[in-house]
């Protein structure tokens, strides 16, 4: 049988390549496929399901990835399946190119394990430290107003509360950048409103400009982390009265690959971000507030990255800080 699609480029490919005819019989392969699938010239004309059952199943179902075992070790491949067409557009067969991505998949597994270990560590540290801190804060508050050493009592309470805040932010930061496997259509206005309700609003007003009809594809809980931390960041770095505004950026609405994308902003009329600090504000531990933990904006950036979005900071029209989150797929 004359091999189909024979070409020097295919022969020299490092990636395994095979071709089958319209009856799913092997008609061509390159040296890389010969080594991987243990095939030879005598297999030409045989059913691919008899030669390599897993490969046959992947072709039949149009799968885009495949894992094979080599000497007991898993090897991972990305698959490219395409038709072989004749001169009158009849499909003569199918060709398969297998690009090995074992190193990538192993790295993903390592990162997943590291994330799991980090989660366990953060949870244990948070739990083991919060219990004694809770005792300290509780006892200090019982002593409040009953001793002449009120300044010392206040200092102890501030330090204990600060430690508690740091632990909360560290735990949140350890989870913020984890990959997001599932998203759902989420009302942007609803998330903004719920996030606003969770912060102390003393002297701060929210100007909600997000239409109720706008939905985005997101992990709702982590999207709330973005709003909560940006709301809290504005409040903690500015004196009241303060107005925080959030809305959709009309000019950034776009369609790509039959999908619709939008952007939204959160801004305030406070003091803004010093120009020299714009490149540093997302760094772990960065803060200009002596009572801040320096993790809030790091959490925001991690959540944005995990969604595949982008974030930038600039000045608002009122001279405050303006954060723009872009490249967000709509849920409509």
TrEMBL record:
Its EC number is 2.7.13.3. SUPFAM superfamilies: ATPase domain of HSP90 chaperone/DNA topoisomerase II/histidine kinase, Homodimeric domain of signal transducing histidine kinase, PYP-like sensor domain (PAS domain). It is an enzyme of class 2 (transferase). This is histidine kinase. Keywords: Kinase, Phosphoprotein, Transferase, Two-component regulatory system. CDD domains: HisKA. InterPro entries: HATPase_C_sf (IPR036890), HATPase_dom (IPR003594), His_kinase_dom (IPR005467), HisK_dim/P_dom (IPR003661), HisK_dim/P_sf (IPR036097), PAS-like_dom_sf (IPR035965), Sensor_HK_Regulatory (IPR050736), Sig_transdc_His_kin-like_C (IPR004358). One of its GO terms (molecular function) is phosphorelay sensor kinase activity. Gene3D superfamilies: 1.10.287.130, Histidine kinase-like ATPase, C-terminal domain (3.30.565.10), PAS domain (3.30.450.20). The keyword Protein transport does not apply. It comes from the Archaea. It catalyses: ATP + protein L-histidine = ADP + protein N-phospho-L-histidine. It comes from Halobellus salinus. The keyword Kinase applies. Residues 124-326 form the Histidine kinase domain. PANTHER family: HISTIDINE KINASE 1 (PTHR43711:SF1), TWO-COMPONENT HISTIDINE KINASE (PTHR43711).
């Amino acid at each position: 049988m004359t091999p189909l699609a024979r070409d020097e480029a295919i022969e020299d490919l490092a990636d395994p390549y095979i071709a089958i005819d319209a009856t799913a019989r092997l008609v061509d392969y390159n040296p890389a496929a010969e080594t991987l699938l243990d095939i030879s010239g005598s297999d030409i004309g045989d059913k691919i399901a008899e030669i390599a059952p897993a490969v046959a199943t992947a072709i039949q179902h149009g799968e885009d990835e495949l894992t094979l075992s080599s000497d007991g070790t898993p090897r991972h491949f990305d698959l490219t399946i395409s038709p072989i067409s004749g001169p009158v557009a009849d499909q003569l067969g199918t060709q398969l190119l297998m690009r090995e991505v074992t190193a990538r998949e192993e790295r993903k597994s390592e990162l997943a394990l590291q994330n799991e270990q980090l989660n366990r560590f953060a949870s244990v540290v948070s739990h083991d430290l919060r219990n004694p801190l809770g005792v300290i804060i509780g006892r200090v508050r019982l002593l409040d107003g009953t001793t002449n050493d009120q300044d010392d009592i206040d200092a102890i309470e501030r330090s204990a509360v600060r430690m508690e805040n740091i632990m909360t932010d560290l735990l949140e930061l350890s989870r913020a950048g984890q990959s997001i496997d599932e998203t759902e259509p989420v009302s942007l206005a609803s998330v903004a409103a719920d996030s606003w309700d969770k912060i102390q609003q003393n002297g701060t007003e929210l100007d909600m400009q997000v239409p109720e009809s706008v939905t985005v594809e997101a992990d709702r809980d982590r999207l709330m982390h973005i709003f909560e931390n940006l709301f809290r960041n504005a409040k903690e770095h500015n004196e009241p009265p303060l107005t925080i505004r959030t809305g959709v950026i009309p000019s950034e609405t776009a369609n790509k690959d039959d999908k619709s994308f939008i952007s939204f902003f959160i801004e305030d009329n406070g003091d803004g971000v010093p120009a020299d600090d714009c490149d540093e504000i997302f760094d772990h531990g960065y803060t200009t507030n002596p009572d801040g933990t320096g993790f809030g904006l790091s959490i925001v950036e991690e959540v944005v990255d995990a969604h595949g979005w982008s974030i930038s900071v600039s000045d608002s029209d009122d001279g405050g800080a303006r954060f723009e989150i872009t490249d967000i797929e709509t849920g409509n």
